[in-house]
């Protein structure tokens, strides 16, 4: 029987293998990211995992992590709003300021909706000073996809309203349809301003219509509508002048034999004195009838006013009703025709 031989490892070879393994482990550790290393974005550099062509970013520094996160979100939001305001500056300059506040409010609301997509991607604490740093990001593609989808919905709605205006036989229905198209076109411009900021290319989606073109068509349609104003009830002469002025400023044409008749009947109620103040209430009833005499709709404007003496209280009430007519006669007339659509 032969003797079995055991294989024995060479101690020198084992030591060589161990050293090689140790060196490879050390090298692997050295090549990996150091969690304590200062990220480049802390000093304004581009985040390695969140390149600027794909993300909007903002950074924040504070003594607490929560505060650093909040400041990062606030910084991104501030920068975003400034750029959107710059892009949308022309959107808010509408027909000598008409609807300017409404446009600005709509743009602010849309900005808040877009900014709900902001997340905190990274945080880091400086070991030497103990301050916390946070990186806020907004995914450009995700935000842009939503904006493009909403712009597409608006484009389809605008097309429907324009086609309805072209097919309308009633002049006021034509005005109402073009007004809805114009309103949605202005909303589209706000979305476009956001898309130019969010999109990596800085371009939006071309519109089949221009706001200026739709606004011109709307003004022409308004001017083609002839209305006969008729004021009755209390202070009829004062209300007749206020009604004619409001209709003219709204873009309508007034005529003695208009296509429609807009009646305004004022009822004033003297409520007397209470606690040193004299009170008046007023109810202005509006009704719109077509050439056949059919009433197309009704509306009511109600106001109250007070002063230390009766004549001033009455005058203040009349002034307030005249202001309401000036501000509301166009939408009120169109609501009567369309049923508030």
TrEMBL record:
Name the record gives this protein: LPP20 lipoprotein
Q: Which Gene3D superfamilies match?
A: Acetamidase/Formamidase-like domains (3.10.28.20)
**Species for this entry:** Thiohalospira halophila DSM 15071
- PROSITE patterns, alphabetized: PROKAR_LIPOPROTEIN (PS51257)
Question: Looking at the keywords, is Lipoprotein present?
Answer: yes
Q: Which residues form the signal peptide?
A: 1-29
Matching Pfam families, A to Z? LPP20
Lipoprotein LPP20-like domain: from which residue to which, for each copy? 39-139
Keywords in alphabetical order:
Lipoprotein, Signal
């Amino acid at each position: 029987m032969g003797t079995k031989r055991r294989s024995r490892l060479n101690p020198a070879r084992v030591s060589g293998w161990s050293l090689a393994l140790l060196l490879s482990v050390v090298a692997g550790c050295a090549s990996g990211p150091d969690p304590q290393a200062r990220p480049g974005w802390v000093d304004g550099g581009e985040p390695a995992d969140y390149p600027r062509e794909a993300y909007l970013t903002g950074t924040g520094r504070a003594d607490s992590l929560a505060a650093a996160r909040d400041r990062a979100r606030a910084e991104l939001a501030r920068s975003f709003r400034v750029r959107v305001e710059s892009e949308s500056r022309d959107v808010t300059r509408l027909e000598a300021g008409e609807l300017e506040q409404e446009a600005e409010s709509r743009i602010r609301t849309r900005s808040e909706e877009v900014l709900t997509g902001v997340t905190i991607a990274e945080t880091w604490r400086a070991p030497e000073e103990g301050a916390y740093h946070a990186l806020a990001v907004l995914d450009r593609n995700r935000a842009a996809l939503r904006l493009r989808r909403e712009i597409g919905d608006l484009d389809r709605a605008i097309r429907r309203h324009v086609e309805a205006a072209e097919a309308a036989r009633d002049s006021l229905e034509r005005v109402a349809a073009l007004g809805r198209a114009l309103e949605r076109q202005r909303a589209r411009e706000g979305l476009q301003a956001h898309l130019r900021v969010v999109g990596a290319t800085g371009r939006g989606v071309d519109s089949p219509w221009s706001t200026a073109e739709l606004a011109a068509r709307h003004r022409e349609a308004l001017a083609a509508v002839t209305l006969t104003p008729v004021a009755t009830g209390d202070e009829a002469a004062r209300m007749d002048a206020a009604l004619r002025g409001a209709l003219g400023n709204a873009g309508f044409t007034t005529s003695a034999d208009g296509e429609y008749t807009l009646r305004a009947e004022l009822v004033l109620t003297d409520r007397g004195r209470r606690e040193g103040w004299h009170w008046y209430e007023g109810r202005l009833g509006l009704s719109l009838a077509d050439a056949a005499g059919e009433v197309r709709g009704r509306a009511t404007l109600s106001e109250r006013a007070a002063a230390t003496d009766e004549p001033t209280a009455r005058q203040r009430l009349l002034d307030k009703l005249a202001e309401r007519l000036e501000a509301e006669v166009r939408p009120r007339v169109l609501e009567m025709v369309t049923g508030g659509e």
